[in-house]
Specification:
Blueprint (H helix, E strand, L loop, with lengths): L1 H29 L22 E5 L12 E7 L3 E3 L4 E4 L7 E6 L1 H4 L4 E8 L15 E7 L9 E5 L9 E9 L9 E9 L5 E9 L4 E6 L2 E2 L3 E2 L12 E3 L28 E4 L19 E3 L3 E8 L5 H12 L3
Parallel strand pairs: 7-17
Antiparallel strand pairs: 1-18, 2-5, 3-4, 4-18, 5-16, 6-11, 6-18, 7-8, 7-16, 8-9, 9-10, 10-14, 11-12, 12-13, 12-15
C-alpha cells in the first residue's frame, strides 16, 4: 500500500511537470504578442503628419535633430535625465545649459506650424535678485541677430504671485510680412496644477485661419491669454490674431487678420534651452537681462511641424507618446 502511494505521487508530479512545460512552451514560443490598438488610426507617434515633421529631438543622450533640418549643434553644459519616453533634456538651476545650431530653410520658412513637447518644470522664480533659474526661462528661439526677440520664441514667463501653482508658457512670433502693423504677436498658456509633473504641450499657428491654439495633455488649454484684448480668465484654447489693432476681442475695428507668417532678419541659427540674448556671447546685438535665464526643467520629444495640427491629431500624439509609442 505504501509503495502504491509513492508511485501515485511520483506519477502526479511527472504529469504536473509535463503540463507546466507545455504551457510555458505555448506561451513563450507559439503565441504572438498582443498588438496595441491603433489610436486615431496611428500605430505610433511618428506616423502623425509624418511628411510635415521638420524637426524632432528625442534627447536619447544626444541633441541631434533626427529630421536633419537643425544641425551643427554647439552645446553648453548639456545634461540628460529620465523622461516620459527614454531620456530627456535636463536643464539646470545652477548653470546655463543650451545649444546653438544651424537651421535649414525648412525651419526659417515656416508659415503655419506646430510645436509639441513634454515638459516638467518647478516654475520660474521671481527675479528680484538676478541669477540662473530666476525669471523668464528660454526654451526655443529662431535667431534674428539685429533684433531683441527671435522670429519664433518659446519660453516660460515670469511667475504670477497671485497664482503660485501656475506655469505661464509663452509662445511669440515676429511677422515681417508686408501689410502687418502689429508684427509681434503671441499667446500665453496658463497651465495650473502641473508644477513638477510631466505635461504634454502643443502650440499651433494656422496661417489660413490666423488662429493660435494651445493644448495641454491632448485637450484645448482651459486658459489661453496674452494676446490683444484677451479676457482676464483667457479663452478656451484658440484665439484669432490680427495684423493691426482689432479694437476689441470681436474685432470692432474690422482689422485684417495676421495671415501668412514670414520671418525676416534671421541668420539661419536657432537657440535651444535659452533666449537668443542670454547665450555667451549673445546671438543678437543685445545682452543678458536680469529677468531672463536659460531653461531649468526637463523637456522631451520636442517636435516642430510645418503645419497646424488638428485637434484629433494632437490628442492622438499625446496618447501615443504617453503609451511610449
Amino acid at each position: 500500500m505504501k509503495n502504491n502511494k509513492y508511485i501515485y505521487v511520483l506519477a502526479l508530479a511527472l504529469v504536473s511537470s509535463v503540463f507546466v512545460s507545455c504551457n510555458d512552451e505555448s506561451i513563450d514560443k507559439e503565441n504572438s504578442p498582443i498588438p496595441y490598438e491603433p489610436i486615431g488610426g496611428y500605430e505610433n507617434s511618428d506616423e502623425i503628419a509624418k511628411d510635415n515633421l521638420v524637426a524632432k529631438f528625442n534627447f536619447e543622450n544626444t541633441i541631434a535633430d533626427v529630421k536633419g533640418n537643425i544641425t551643427n549643434a554647439m552645446a553648453t553644459n548639456i545634461g540628460y535625465a529620465e523622461g516620459p519616453k527614454g531620456k530627456a533634456y535636463n536643464g539646470s538651476s545652477t548653470e546655463a545649459r543650451y545649444f546653438v545650431a544651424d537651421a535649414s530653410n525648412a525651419i526659417i520658412s515656416l508659415n503655419s506650424y506646430t510645436f509639441s513637447f513634454w515638459m516638467n518644470s518647478a516654475n520660474t522664480i521671481d527675479p528680484a535678485t538676478a541669477g540662473q533659474g530666476k525669471g523668464a526661462q528660454g526654451i526655443f528661439s529662431v535667431v534674428r541677430p539685429t533684433e531683441f526677440w527671435g522670429g519664433l520664441n518659446v519660453y516660460i514667463e515670469n511667475p504670477d504671485s497671485a497664482f503660485p501653482d501656475r506655469i505661464r508658457l509663452k509662445f511669440s512670433m515676429e511677422n515681417g510680412r508686408d501689410g502687418v502693423a502689429w508684427r509681434g504677436q503671441g499667446a500665453l498658456v496658463n497651465i495650473d496644477g502641473n508644477i513638477n509633473k510631466w505635461v504634454h504641450v502643443v502650440f499651433a499657428y494656422n496661417a489660413t485661419k490666423s488662429t493660435i491654439s494651445a493644448y495641454v495633455n491632448g485637450e484645448l488649454a482651459a486658459n489661453l491669454g496674452g494676446f490683444p484684448y484677451a479676457p482676464a480668465n483667457g479663452v478656451s484654447g484658440t484665439a484669432v490674431l490680427y495684423a493691426d489693432n482689432p479694437g476689441s476681442l470681436d474685432n470692432s475695428n474690422n482689422a485684417p487678420k495676421y495671415g501668412d507668417f514670414k520671418m525676416v532678419a534671421t541668420n539661419g541659427k536657432i537657440v535651444f534651452g535659452n533666449h537668443q540674448f542670454e547665450t555667451t556671447p549673445p546671438q543678437n546685438n543685445g545682452g543678458p537681462q536680469d529677468w531672463a535665464t536659460s531653461y531649468v526643467g526637463l523637456l522631451d520629444e520636442f517636435r516642430l511641424y510645418n503645419t497646424a495640427l488638428e485637434s484629433n491629431d494632437v490628442r492622438s500624439l499625446y496618447q501615443l507618446e504617453k503609451d511610449n509609442r
